[in-house]
Amino acid sequence: MFHSGTADASPIFPPYQIFDRGGIRVGFVGYNDPLTPIRQSPAYSRGITFTQPERDLANYVRVLRREKACHLVFVLSHMGLAQQLNLANQDCADGVDYILGADTHERVREPLQGKFCKVTEPGAFASFVGKLDLVVENGTIKEQTYALLDVDPERYPEDREMKGMVAAAREPFRQEVSKVIGRTRTPLLRYYVIETPMDNLITDALMWKFDTDFVVSNGFRFCPPLVPPAGGEAEITNEYLWSMLPVESTIKAGVVTGRQIIDWLESELENAFTKDATRRFGGWFVRYQGLFVKFTIGNRLGERVQEVTVKGQPLVDARKYTVIGCEREGDPDNTVCRIVGVAEPRRRDVTIHQVVTEYLALHSPVSPTIEGRAVATDAAADLLSQVEGTSYRFR
Fold first, then answer.
1. DSSP code of 364?
2. Whole-model pTM above 0.85?
């Protein structure tokens, strides 16, 4: 990561760090996702240029191995499993032992072997810890054992001192964050790549609030699930609302043509399923309500979308449709949730949190499920990973 316009200068943060332990020197190189300015709100990375690891990883491996005499070299990466597996197969990764990855929240239980190194990713939400044991002799790995540990509270009890510190920090806000704003009868999940009950709840709320043809939500891969007891209901609190929607976004409206919708959907499908792993976003397809979209993941850009309806009617290229979405900070005025060139853009005097809270107050208990708003002809509705061509399965 460099200050914009200075990509040939020094990085903003130290690119590597070295630790000496038990006579073994270990080097770590860190990389963030070069696609961050596109996939996230532009304002979050304004003034920062991200470069591909392929540009300089080989140089840092050389520095760590030869100049700094490191016995082990790890890459710490927040790029998603698909990009990390691709990197493990590039010549620049020669000399790397492991890519310890993150971003797509994959539960890698056995390290995935690339051409030059292995790749791991340790789940999400502090539910797992990746544990890697290495036996090193004369600077060479002789034995290696990896385990993805389930953080079972019965096996690993809470640390009392830390629990007390958390409670003390939370106390001034406890009443507000613990306020119950709704209930659900079905699990609120966000693991699935194609469609999720949690995002169906959010887009249902938007569709209820506004008179529009369709609504869109950027969606995410994160947020712990909320699972009701069998035959019962789970409370949705303000705290959980912020977990679902960590950014309090203003609602934005606009007008688009049917052709724009097709182009946008093709772009979003390319982001999620492109064969070029260096351009693959981490974890999900865009979420919506009011649209039905059938597509083929395995097709190329421009040929994935097979069918689109708007409120049950076939989409017409030249027709104009109204859309509602959440404004991403830093986006151009005529962009709504990565739909570019939107006509008549206007901000509404309400936020996504307000809309969801109002909806839950009137409709609880809710029961969102996967409804088939997005249907892939070549993948199951509960697809859990974008990664193909390996033995890995999310479980």
1. P
2. yes
